[in-house]
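note to self — DONT lose this again. spent like an hour looking for the file last time. sequence + predicted structure for the chain T wanted, 307 res
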Amino acid sequence: MKNYYRIMLGKKSTLAPECINGHYIGAGFGINQDLTGLLPEEWREFNHAFIPIYQQAYPDKSKIAAGLSCGFLWTVSKGIVRGDIVLCPDGTGVYRVGEVIGDYYYVPGTDLPHRREVRWLDGGIPRSVMSEALKRSAGSIGTVSDISSYAEEIERLAGGTTAQPPPPPSPVEDLASFALEKHLEDFLVQNWAQTELGRDYDIYTEDGEKVGQQYPSDSGPMDILAIRKDKKELLVVELKRGRASDVVVGQVLRYMGYVSQELAEEGQTVRGVIIAQEDDSKLRRALAVSPNISFYRYQVSFKLQKV
């Protein structure tokens, strides 16, 4: 089964023309050595070996930034396999589509030395014809994002057709059915500063980009990774649309364990937060013995006013 990835080729796609003309995708991240024979099957093993090397190249970067960059490098070099499809913005509002047809190779002395051969399709997919959901995912922060959940739409658009128009909106009963089912995470991120959590924590940011949204871990991506304003504590935030059950406590604990063992600097503590519309008795029982995890309900109102 092939997977689909959005790949950024240089900051703001500045290296896209070179990559497209050269029939490859690539990455750098300051790791200037041939990785042939050094790419394990698991990205976590790769990160253990190369985070120290990355931090030597960029001593001002945190372990969080180092973990993200090394994870991206492993994905480009190893995680993406032959037959997978990549979408790469070319800087003109078009996403070029390619099939990965080669294994890892190294070209020293270049901006993107860690490379994979790609067969680029003719033309591309204009961003304007994408669904809003695909636009958000394809425009997400970071070098690599997995957009496999949009495989059907990507295949349709890559074949030269345009996206189907969205269905007409349903009558608005409340904002949960109107928007939050799909956009709760984006809504929270955009309005973070106005929330109670935003008073004490910032979503983790690197070079002006909120890399703390959908931060990867070995248990899956965390919805939000934040850091206390005094830098002494990291916060894992898990969002649940509707009712949260006790299962989510175990999920948050796994994320917290990863953050504590892999990302936290010396002296940093880790807390967790669950945000949902409702809880239940099982969740409250689980939280009673998990004092480092808090629960918040979200409440949103929607009102039309005639003028």
